[in-house]
Structures are given as C-alpha cells and as structure tokens.
Amino acid sequence: MQPSSQELYRVAQIREAERIAIEELQIPGMQLMLSAGLAAFNALQQRWPDVYRLSVFCGGGNNAGDGYVLAKLALQAGFNVVVYSVADTAALKGDALMAYQDYVRTGGRVLPCEPGLKPGGIVADALLGTGLSREVSDEYAMAISLINASGCPVLALDVPSGLHADSGSVLGCAVQAGITVTFIALKCGLFTGEAANYCGDVVCSSLNVPDSVLAKLPVAARLLDKKPLPPRLRASHKGHFGHVLLIGGNHGYSGAIRLAGEAALRAGAGLVSIATRAAHSAVLNCNRPELMCHAVEEPSALRSLLDKATAVVIGPGLGRDEWARALFAEALASGKPCVLDADALNLLAEQPARRDDWILTPHPGEASRLLACSTRDIGGDRFAAVRNLQQRYGGVIVLKGAGSLVADDKDIFVDTTGNPGMASGGMGDVLAGMLGALSAQGLASVDAAKLAVYVHGEAADIIAEEHGERGMLASDLLAKIRELLN
C-alpha cells in the first residue's frame, strides 16, 4: 500500500492516467473501482482489525462508487454495515451505479444522510473525492460535520472530502481522517498547506495501473528525501568547509542571529562570523566561543568580512531601519551567494530583484509581501505561490509552513518532516543558518535547501517523540541537526 515513489501529481494528471488505462490499455473502469474499494477495505482491516461495524458516507460520483464497493466487501466479511447517502441514488451513473446496485443486491442498507444521525464503528468518507473545486455545499458540509463529530475512527477514500486535492487548502470544511487511502498515485494536496490537519496517514494503491502510464505524464512535484553527505577526507581542514557570514541582530533581536550562527556551526561550516550591532558583538558568543562576532555599525565595516565569506546569510533579527537597509544593500552588492530570511525578505519586497545564486526562505506572510497578494492567496495554492516566487525572484525558494516547499527553476519538492512543536520563535533562524552552512560547504543551492529543510523538520520530529511538542525550543534542534547530518 505504501507509495513506491516520491512523485506527486495533480488531479488533471490522475484523470489522464485513468483515461489511458481505460481507453488505451482496455482496463475496465469498473475494475479500477473494484480495486479501489478493495484497497480501502484492506487498509481498514490492517488499521482496525478488531472493529466490525462500518458507516460509509457516499456522495453522487465515482468516489461514492468506491465507497459502495468497500461497503459490499465489508458486508460480505460479516461487518455490520450502513451507507448514508447524501445524493439521490437515482442520479448515480455508470460504474458508481453498478457498485451501488451490487451492494444493494448483497443486502446492503442505504439510508439518507440527515441531521442528527450518529454513525458508529469505523466511518468511511466517500463523499467528494478529487472532484471538488469550489466550496463545499450545504448538504455535504452537514455530512462532513456529522463525520467529524462522531468520535469514530475515519478512513478517507482518495482525498478527505473538502480538501482540495491539488493545493491542500480546505474549501469551507473538510473531513478529519485518521488514514487516507489514495488511488493510482499520490496527489499534491495531500502533503502541504492544511492537509496535515485532515489526511492522517497517507497510503497509496496503484489499482494495478502499470507504471508505464504515469511515466507518460509530467511529475508535478516530489516528496523530499534525505541524501546523505559524503564522509570527509582525513586530511581536511576548516578552509575546506566554507566561511559563513551572518548579518543581523539589530537592537532587541540578538537571539535570532545567535541561533542562526550556532546552527551554521552545527551544520558543519568551517568558520562562522556574525556581523551585528556593537551593543551585541561583545556578548553574542558567550558560551559559544567558536562564533566570531564583529561590531558593524557602518556598511564600510562589512566589506572586509564579505571578502572573506563563502556564503552570506542576511535577515535574522535584521530589522528594517537605516542600519538594516544599508547592510542589506552592501551584502547584495558583494555578489556573494546569499540566503535571505526574515526582514531581508521584507526589504527585498520593497525593491524586488532577481538572482540565480540566492535562497529565499519566506513564510506565508513574507511570501504575500513578495508577491503583493494576501496570505489567503498563498494558502489557496502553495504550489502556484512557490512557482510564482521562483519565476519572479530566481534562485531557490523555500516556502515555509506545514509541508514546506522547495522550488528551483525546474522542480518543486514537498517536505514531510516537522510538527506543530516548531510553531515557536527562532525556528526559521536555525534553518537559515543551516542553509548558509550547507551552501558554504559546496552544495548546490537546491541540494542545500532540500537537505536543510528535511533535517530541520526531522530533528524536531525526534525531539517531539522524546519529549513532546509543547515547549520545544529552536535551540533544542541544534544537537539533533549535528547527529542527523552525520
């Protein structure tokens, strides 16, 4: 059931795969539906082996047909089964109608979905599937609310109803599933945006559609995985692993640049320098003497530091006053490869530019300023947003958030690591420092971004498993980052 690849597809591509399978390979559509119902039933039995009561919520399309197949299989296996139909069953067509009729002939019960009903056992969501492109209508919203209020374990067929299968945004309301069994291939919207609140565990069944079918279609995105760094040569010295210069730490924000600096050390940079306010420079490396801290009050004082740097990180704790603007302009004028984070992104939004050798790390608010749109627009289609950012600004874009996206001019990658414990100050500063360190060690920008994003979240996942999510600090990640990169 687990996906054999990291490839993600949009709904239009899945529909084209279905067309090829049915029209060119002569695989009957009903066979695909039977395979989908069987995949869902197998997942149900594996997840909840001791439960023999099933409530299936069906709509009026092919997703409902998958639900009726599931219901029939469960009925034949001795389950107590009831189907709650939102749509008029007389309106069912094609394979979905055949699946409904087979279920009824087997003795299955179909009841109307009405306010106040209380489903029991396992609840299966076969309401809307991948076809939804507008806000959920009232009758389906009522069914979704009944599912979510039931307190029962929930299995979603293909996509949790109400979740946009391409973008991961919620169209009014959505089913909160414990497991989603998706069909043919993984959908983009199952792994980013609001999806983590609704999908639960995601498993995939190919429905026996040959790999050659998907090979004919372009891949929309890929899941991130971790490519190990090579071992270091025995005769290495610090000069082989780059010199990162971090610029920031305005008045009141020294912690941000300190976190970024220590993250750069833990991610393997040979040397790490920090350019910051004079008030901070003398104390910033307390308990971390490996950080070389410099008082920089004028742009001219930054030039010699930039000359020595392999990679530059600018933005953590930078602010937007005249000091920040002057240092920002000096850093960009140096021509050194840059990581732009936090207020450096806000300054960039004021005077847009394009470069191929930088990494930009916006969260949705910063992304909205860079694209002159609303955060709602960003959340409505994160894939479109990250592609627009890359086309407008160049380089590599890391669009942060649940299911962070990494994009260069060719590909988009989706991260599956990380957890809500990371919703605390300083996490982005740590990521920025990691990006600078990996870039300084010679990784291509996209490879540095992919590895940093994955390990950043992986470190947080280990800490959450050991200690829980609440109270997780950005500095807690530092030791784990070192372990994971090794």
UniProtKB/TrEMBL annotation:
Record's keyword annotation contains Disulfide bond: no
Keywords tagged on the record: ATP-binding, Isomerase, Lyase, Metal-binding, Multifunctional enzyme, NAD, NADP, Nucleotide-binding, Potassium
Required cofactor(s): Mg(2+); K(+)
Binding site for AMP: 400-404, 428
Pfam families xref list: Carb_kinase, YjeF_N
Quaternary structure annotation from Swiss-Prot or TrEMBL: Homotetramer.
Function of the protein: Catalyzes the epimerization of the S- and R-forms of NAD(P)HX, a damaged form of NAD(P)H that is a result of enzymatic or heat-dependent hydration. This is a prerequisite for the S-specific NAD(P)H-hydrate dehydratase to allow the repair of both epimers of NAD(P)HX. Catalyzes the dehydration of the S-form of NAD(P)HX at the expense of ADP, which is converted to AMP. Together with NAD(P)HX epimerase, which catalyzes the epimerization of the S- and R-forms, the enzyme allows the repair of both epimers of NAD(P)HX, a damaged form of NAD(P)H that is a result of enzymatic or heat-dependent hydration.
NCBIfam families attached to this UniProt entry: yjeF_cterm, yjeF_nterm
Name the UniProt record assigns to this protein: Bifunctional NAD(P)H-hydrate repair enzyme
